[in-house]
């Protein structure tokens, strides 16, 4: 009798263990593996189409180099608008622009679903050549400093002091990005306004940046005119519901 009870208990425990393992495999391990594989696949693709550094051949004009190097990425996705590189971070990615602000939250540079790793993308309302007053680029904040997780490094003003600039390659040139502000704002913030009609609207937008920034550095409000071209890199942060971290720079 005891042996039968022990055998039955063993079967029950084995079934419980199998169920727990299956749930772990299905709910935790497999989704994480899919995300890891998708991210690694993106990095491998980016490595093949990555532009050369602006220092690789100083004799080559920046405009010629930009056109040549983005052409490699354009063969994969004609929606590419640029490439952003920031030293001392993992941010070294292409920037695409979709017909909305949803598609590239879930799909990769090749346009295929990639388990919500996504791809950095320019707000669909912004000028595709990044020549507008502001260009807002979004990407996920992921574990292991993936995608735009390193945007949050700029929350520390000391980090911006060490890394004040990035590089933006567009179809027609290679630009220096001079960072000057970091903001922690809700997703409904006026910072995400992307259509400007009057100079007054641009002035109000700049005033908002300088009034709401956690800090500004190296540039005063008076240094930035309404004809400036701003680049904003935005990602989710977790200080509160729908919090966003945004580093702001000037495209030079």
Characterise this structure.
By secondary structure, the protein is an alpha+beta fold. The protein has a single domain (49-251), classed as Sortase (Sortase, Chain: A, Beta Barrel), CATH 2.40.260. It is built from 5 helices and 11 strands. The chain has helices spanning 2-49, 62-74, 103-106, 157-162, 199-212; strands at 80-85, 92-96, 121-122, 134-138, 141-142, 146-147, 165-169, 174-186, 215-216, 230-236, 243-251. The strands form 2 sheets. Strands 1, 2, 3, 4, 7, 8, 9, 10 and 11 form a 9-stranded mixed β-sheet that branches. A two-stranded antiparallel sheet has the order 5-6. The longest helix has 48 residues, at 2-49. The mean pLDDT is 88.
Q: Describe the main β-sheet briefly.
A: 9 strands, mixed
CATH class: Mainly Beta
The total count of strands amounts to 11
Strand content: 15-25%
CATH-level-2 architecture: Beta Barrel
Distance between the termini: 84 Å
Query: Per the principal axes of the C-alpha atoms, what is the gross shape?
Result: globular
Helix-strand makeup class: alpha+beta
| CATH domain topology | Sortase, Chain: A
Task: Determine the fraction of residues in helical runs and give it as a percent range.
Answer: 25-40%
> Could you tell me the mean pLDDT?
88
Number of domains: 1
Topology:
Elements: H1 2-49, H2 62-74, E1 80-85, E2 92-96, H3 103-106, E3 121-122, E4 134-138, E5 141-142, E6 146-147, H4 157-162, E7 165-169, E8 174-186, H5 199-212, E9 215-216, E10 230-236, E11 243-251
Parallel strand pairs: 4-10
Antiparallel strand pairs: 1-2, 1-7, 3-4, 5-6, 7-8, 8-9, 8-11, 10-11
């Amino acid at each position: 009798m005891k042996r039968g009870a022990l055998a039955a208990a063993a079967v029950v425990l084995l079934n419980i263990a199998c169920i727990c393992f299956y749930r772990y495999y299905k709910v935790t391990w497999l989704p994480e593996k899919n995300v890891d594989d998708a991210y690694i696949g993106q990095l491998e693709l980016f490595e093949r189409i990555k532009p050369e550094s602006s220092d690789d051949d100083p004799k080559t004009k920046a405009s010629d180099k930009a056109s040549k190097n983005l052409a490699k990425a354009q063969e994969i996705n004609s929606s590419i608008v640029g490439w952003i590189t920031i030293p001392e971070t993992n941010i070294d990615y292409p920037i695409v622009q979709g017909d909305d602000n949803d598609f590239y939250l879930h799909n990769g540079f090749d346009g295929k679903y990639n388990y919500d790793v996504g791809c950095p993308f320019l707000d669909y309302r912004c000028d595709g050549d990044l020549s507008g007053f502001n260009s807002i680029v979004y990407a996920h904040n992921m574990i292991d400093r993936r995608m735009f997780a390193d945007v949050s490094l700029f929350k520390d003003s000391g980090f911006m002091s060490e890394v004040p600039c990035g590089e933006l390659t567009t179809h027609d040139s290679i630009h220096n990005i001079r960072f000057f502000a970091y903001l922690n704002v809700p997703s409904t913030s006026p910072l995400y306004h992307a259509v400007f009609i009057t100079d007054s609207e641009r002035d109000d937008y700049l005033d908002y940046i300088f009034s709401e920034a956690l800090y500004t550095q190296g540039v005063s409000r008076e240094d930035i005119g309404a004809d400036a071209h701003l680049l904003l890199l935005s990602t989710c942060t977790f200080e509160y519901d729908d919090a966003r971290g945004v580093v702001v720079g000037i495209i030079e």
